[in-house]
Design brief:
By secondary structure, this protein is of the alpha+beta class. The chain is built from 2 helices and 8 strands.
Length: about 140
């Protein structure tokens, strides 16, 4: 691994460390990742209410067979699957460091509040004053 970029890696079984992060003492697990070139790097998995689902997805991607918090003491399997890892620069305490993140899913951003295309077109028409906007179904009427 030369630096920033996307790479393949596997978890290193037995490398895991359990701890608490920050002032809120958020539970975290650090897992070392092995890259095909022989290098390794640590990734951090956080278990706050918002981040826990993603951390479980990342463990599962590595090959972990657990089903929930009750299984976190045994991370066997994390060395089974090769995963995509994004290595990027991250600033922490005024220092720039490389950070490794296990990628799950298609790598797409998902819009939090979606709307159907007709409502979207109507809103744009209303906001821009362009009332000549049409859809395949005909002219668009604002839903508000």
């Amino acid at each position: 691994m030369a630096g920033k970029g996307r790479y393949k890696a596997k978890g290193i079984l037995g490398s895991q460390q359990y701890g608490l992060a920050g002032d809120k003492e958020t539970p975290q697990i650090a897992v070392d990742l092995a890259f095909p070139d022989g290098s390794s790097m640590t990734t951090f998995l956080f278990f706050s209410p918002g981040s826990a689902p993603y951390s479980f997805q990342r463990l599962t991607a590595l090959g972990w067979k657990g089903k929930g918090p009750q299984d976190l003491a045994n991370l066997s399997g994390i060395d089974q699957n090769e995963v995509d890892v994004e290595v990027r620069e991250d600033e922490y305490d005024g220092k720039v460091r490389l950070k490794a993140e296990i990628l799950t899913g298609p790598g797409r951003v998902v819009i939090e509040k979606t709307v159907d295309p007709a409502s979207f077109a109507a809103r744009v028409a209303a906001l821009t004053g362009n009332t000549s906007a049409t859809t395949p179904a005909g002219p668009v009427k604002p839903p508000f």
